[in-house]
Amino acid sequence: MKKLLITLFIGVCLVSCSTQKKVVQVAQQKPKPKIEKPKVVVKKPLYNTYSCKFSGSYNNIPIRGSLRSCYDSVVWISINVLGIEQARCLITKDTVYMLNKIEKEAYVCTYNRITQFAGLPLSLSFVQDLFTDTIAKKTFNTPKFSATITKQSHNVTEQLKLPYEINFKGVVNSANQSLNLKLKDQEINNPLSFPFDIPSNYKVRH
Questions:
Q1: Cβ atoms < 10 Å from Cβ of 106
Q2: Region 59-85: what's the mean pLDDT?
Q3: Which pLDDT belongs to residue 173?
Q4: Interstrand relation of 105-110 and 203-205 (parallel, antiparallel or unpaired)
C-alpha cells in the first residue's frame, strides 16, 4: 500500500509538471488576458476574549456560574449549585476536559466520542457561538439528538450585540433536557486566565 501511494503521488506530480509545460508553451504563442483574482475578505471576530456570569436552571435544577472564552482557542466554564462549585470544564479545539468535584472524577473526551455517545454536534465553535452569536432560533435533528435553541439579544455597545437570554430544549438519547440561562456582566477583550488542573486523587475517565 505504501508503494502504491508513493507511485500515485509521483504520477500526480509528473502529470502536473507536464501540464504546466504545455500551458507555458501556449502562453508564449498567444498571450492570455490577465484575470484579476477576487479579493478575499477575512471577517474579523467580534472579540478576542469574552467573559460572562450566568444564572438559570438545568433540568429545573437552579445553577449559577461563569464562562471565559478566548476566540477559536479555549472555553472555560465553572458551574455552581447552592453556592458550591460542582463542575469545571475546559474545552479546547480537539478535547473536552471536565472535573466532577462532588464525585472527585475527571473526564477527558474527544468530540468524536461525545458525538458517538450522544449525537451532539459539539465543538469549540458550537459552545462559543452558543454564548455569543445572535441568531434568534436554531434547530438540530439527528438520530440521537434533537434540540431547539432560542435567544434574546441586546446591544452591549453600539458596535456589539450579544445574547442575554438562552433557552435550550432537546432530547438526548431519548432523555428530555432543558437549559435556561440569563447572562450578565458580559465583557470583551479583557485579560483572562483559565485555571484548570486534574488533582492527583481524582479518578480519570476517558
A1: 19
A2: 95
A3: 83
A4: parallel
Domain chopping of the chain, boundaries: 49-196
Listed in sequence order, the residues at least 6 apart from 205 whose beta carbon sits closer than 8 Å to its beta carbon are 105, 106, 107, 108
The whole-angstrom separation of Cα 70 and Cα 124 is 10
- The bridge status of strand 203-205 relative to strand 175-188 is unpaired
- Band of residue 106 on the pLDDT scale cut at 50, 70, 90: very high
Element (H or E) spanning 90, and its range?
strand 84-91
Q: What amino acid is encoded at 98 in this protein?
A: M
Q: Give the pLDDT score at 36.
A: 56
List, for residues 188-204, the tens digit of each pLDDT value.
Answer: 999 999 999 999 999 99
Residues of 61-99 as b/e, b for ≥16 C-beta within 10 angstroms? eebbbebbbbbeebbbbbbeeeeeebbbbbbeeeebbbb
Identify the bridge partners of residue 84 per DSSP, sorted by sequence position.
Answer: 81
Q: Fold for domain 49-196? A: outer membrane lipoprotein receptor (LolB), chain A (2.50.20)
How many Cβ atoms from other residues are within 10 Å of residue 190's Cβ?
A: 11
